[in-house]
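Job type: complex structure
Entries:
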Amino acid sequence: MRFTIAREKLQEALTNVAPAVPAKTTLPVLANILVEASERGVRFSGTDLDVAVSVEVPADVELPGALTLPAKRLGEITRELPPAPVKIAALGEQRATLECGRTKFKLLGLPRDEYPAFAPVEYNTGWRVKSSVLHELISRTAFAVSTEESRPILNGVLWEVRPQLLRMVATNGHRLALMESTAEMGKNATGDFIVPPRALDQVRRVFPPEEEIEIGKGENHLAFRSPLASVSTRLIEGPYPNYDQVIPRDNDRYAIIDRPSLISALRRMAVVASDQTHRVKLSFNTALLRFTVQTPDVGEGQDEIPVAYTGDSLDIGFNSTYLLEILRYMPTDQVRFTFKTAERAATLLPENWAGQGKYVCLVMPLRLVD
Amino acid sequence: MDLAPQEVWSRLLECARREIADHTFKTWLEPTQAVELRGDKLTVAVPDQFSADWNESKHAALLTSLAPIALGQPCQVEFIVDARSRQRVQMDLFVAPPSSSTSGTPNGVTPAPRPLLNAKYTLDNFVIGKSNELAASAALAVAEAPGRDFNPLFIYGATGIGKTHLMQAVAHAILARNPAMRAAYLGAEQFTNEYVMSIQGRTTHDFRRRFRELDLLLVDDVHFLKGKEATQEEFFHTFNALYEGGRQIIMTSDRPPSEIPGIEARLVTRFQWGMVADIEFPDFEHRIAILRSKAHQDHLQHTIPDDVLHLIAEHVRSSVRELEGCIIKLIAFASLRQQPVTVDLAIEALRDRIRPSAPGSGHGSDGRGLSITTIQSAVAKAWGVSAAALTSKSRTREVAVPRQAAMLLSRELLNAHLADIGNAFGGRDHSTVIHSLERARYLRAADQEFAERLQLAVLELPAGAA
């Protein structure tokens, strides 16, 4: 294997692949990046056996071949290289030289045969989708996944695919984000998949918004690919909880709130909120929303913002972190906050959203008395 | 079984791990915690309702089938939502709050709120004997066809002999057949309190709706209604509403309806409308059966020998509750001492309940100078043998027959306990005493000479003893 590649191209490829390489692993070869040179270019791949990323970049290939090189060192070297073409050549099965201008390295790698094969995926029965649609679905929902190990099924994002509809749902049991987008994807496009958010992050990172992505299904895998890149992931197995049944349909009170002022009030209150619960009390009164925080050992805080609200006054407690996270992803400057009682789920919706589709976030209140 | 629930669960999981795919195991069974082991029922807590339903439908059967392999005995696994997650400050989308009923069950049917029944009070665990035959058969009939023949069912009897058990057992049986039944179990005291609270909170309307739209109402200790006129009035109307709707009502009290003071006549007659059944103190054999059943329920059958059960049944006559208390105390005592359960240990552990068994004192004497010793000498005289022979090891016919006669008299005149009699006659086993008594009773009926000598011995006893 011998090829010459532009430093920027090498850097770009490694930045895309490196996040898929595990920081710690029991299988030494996984700490390496697989480098494959062919007449089409050079392909760099990394995996932790759950998520695999692979990108192809143009290069001047003199001699096709493949080997694996340590991801961390290769990345650090590349970052420090002068802006000049980089020449990489294999020395036998597990060593390579890297030359750039007057800089020279010899790196120890591992033979290509030791690198695990990727799970087979069938693209013929798959479907296509515009990358920007996926980007939006992912960015508005994936933040809500659970990181707790006690409920592994909630560690994934539910992706429901229908011929004309894409829906992503994520929740940690306390708050939930759901987004729907309409898109024409053909009759093959059906299925429910629980995707690790890490894989979705890679999708967002690897595929530019304007690309069209092909999606293929494997036995327990899902793969995304464009002509030059691919991301494949193991799916989380099992049924997802019935999220539809927890979305409140009878929330009869609502307030229209200015998002930036809500965010800044919540951030102020969060300073004195409890580190454990982050509890802030919201008191809805006619045209006025009052915030109160009382944290023993810390202190108290109060704030008010004007809102459009006409119902009975109601006190309701929330984890300010959850509210702030949701507000960060709300696409409009005005949000509609709906609720029924202090013990039922509240929803946050974009108000007058120009975007296509549907977006709703749920958040469960905090009890006001311990 | 003395394994902790956690231990039982980890053994079961160890076995299940081999049967279930790794990721499934990690997702559904690893984030669980054993909570309680009650009989052969293991309760396991999971983080939310969804996992509880899923585990119940997908893994409960497998786990139950693995139990004999993993534990050497059957065990049923039941999944519940972790109580702590219900009480957390942060409410959860998939965990119903503790107060409201579990909304949104998978099949969309909202089951009626469960009454607070003790899971142990089932018909299977109820030991039927002579003293509670009538009440039990009435209860069975009610369980078969609630609201039909015996409505209301009124059970009365002294404290601690199984009224509440029987009443709840009926509710268990009815609910097992039809979980949608709306049932309520409460004490008369609680009924009063709730009524008072509804008056205070101006929610009498809710109160009425709650009680008048039931399918099954169980009221414990109705005698506590005495003197509470407004509550009685409310209860009267509740009763009528349910009765007219053909709903089953079951009540218990410590005395028959007509003898409860301070209860209005119109209520008393209503209580007597259906079936009034009493439960009496269990007799000796019944007590043995209850003790056996209790020991069996707690998987103690290997550790309590029969003669200890007899000893307890002999001495503890006041209530079933006390019988159960004895078993629990005995086991605790034995495990504390790390000794096997024996008669001696039982006597020591239960000395507050079992009086010393020396002949001539306690149950062995009646205050008129009559004791096992005097009986022994009288019988010895009548048969012409020495009193010492009666307590000897000898089993020759000459000695055995008068010994049996003396045992019979000790039993009949002194009402002495079997174990005491056995001890007084040379440390014989209580079962030997039972046999001797049977033999002597038979001889008295069949053998003219035996009967005459027995009469002679009775005449020898201190005056007035017979």
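Summary: The beta strands of chain B are 33-38, 41-46, 76-81, 153-157, 183-187, 216-220, 248-253, 275-279. DSSP finds 21 helices and eight strands in chain B.
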